[in-house]
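Appendix B, record 7
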Amino acid sequence: MGDLTLVVGTPETDPLPEHTDVTYIGPILWQQPGTTVPEWIDGLSRDKPLIWVYSGNPRYASGGDAFDSLVVLQACIAALASEDLHVVVTAGHNSLPQKVLPLPANFRHEPYVPGLAMAERSDLLIHHGGYGSCQTGLFMGKPAVIIPTYSERESNARRIAALGAGAIVSVEHASGEKRVRVDELRATIRRVLTDPSFTDNARRVGERLRAYGGAAHAAHLI
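Structure tokens (predicted):
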């Protein structure tokens, strides 16, 4: 513990033991001023929900599809291929694995999108539960369906679910392989899209996050 200990997030998203001497500053998220989503995304018809699927970077680490990004992609494709939705898939400046190509007709891939702008344009985020993804969605007041691919991400996902701002679909282990129950994922996506409480709660949490001040407040305190 230093003379001043700043914690990213809020007590609800990043709890610490009671009476711990820290100052919460909310999320630290950055985007180039004036950045927008690609024109083709902004031009998608508004009569269908827009789902942003971020599976994680499949080349983030050595040894195959890092942190199970492939299982997220395969589950989302299987669950949403026949749904009346726009689905935008991104993987952090990367191409998609050949295993998931070609994409269904209602899917489009963009190697990279600015996170805050894309979250603002989306009706629902589906992601792996990484901290940045969780904070980006909450900051913009958008609900999430989270497929957490390891323990830290599950911890993040559980806190969002506890706030009523999203839902979790677990990755199961069977016969040495990881899988997601496609029917459960599809039903969960439909539930979050049609139950307004998820969006209402996400907006409420987003307002609270923004009130902490973020990087500018941290700089002032320092």
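Remarks on this record: Strands lie at 6-8, 23-26, 50-54, 86-90, 107-109, 124-127, 144-146, 166-168, 172-174, 177-179. DSSP finds eight helices and ten strands in the chain.
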